[in-house]
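dumping this here before i forget
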Amino acid sequence: MYAGLETEYSRKAFFKSKFLFNEPCELVLGSRMQWRTRKQQRKLVSVNDTAYYISVQKNVEVLLQNDDILGQIDTFRHAQEDQLNDLCDGECVRTHLVFSKYPDALQIIAYYDDVEIVNPLGTKVKRHKIGIFYYTIGNIHPRFRSSLKAIHLLAVVKTEHLKRYGFTKVLQPFVDAMNQLSSDAGLMITLLGGQRTFHGALIAFVGDNPASCSVGGFKESPSFAFRGCRTCLAKRDQMAVMVTLL
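structure:
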């Protein structure tokens, strides 16, 4: 049954030929010199710092081949003016230039968080910590959007590389994809019924407090920040007084 699939190369070739396989792309962020031991000899070699990115354009093209997902996008409707049932019903989306011009445009919701893949009490903490970016399509109904099947991997990178080279270098392909979707040319996709142009834009970039602060270019920890809360923009001395009063 599995003849011809013994090696990783043969399996990848099979997936590419038989399935809609979207292979991750390696992004070289930079290089550094590092000591390596080879044949009992230590040598100073150049090592590339990399990240892995999965093309949004290709992934969207694969997703829209599914009639159920395409139907969700084509039948998407906002709630009534006086109702707020979802993020997509907010003023930010209603007044957005892209969604005002193209009501059925794809609503991209991105998410970022760090993951510690070793024992948090061990000595390797933070050395192997990785940052993972996901996204989902807001046009899908919320009850389906929360499913793991509707959450798609965007990029994976070591946290230390992310802090060294910055978010811009890691997410530049994603920014280019959003610029393409939001342009008048849009993204041309071949469906069963023929070619069709889709538009879209990023409506939210969510995460926990450290992740959101990192993406926004702020201090991760609010302990020593001049304004510890990005919602109320209260100063440290004001927060100290208010917490004492409460």
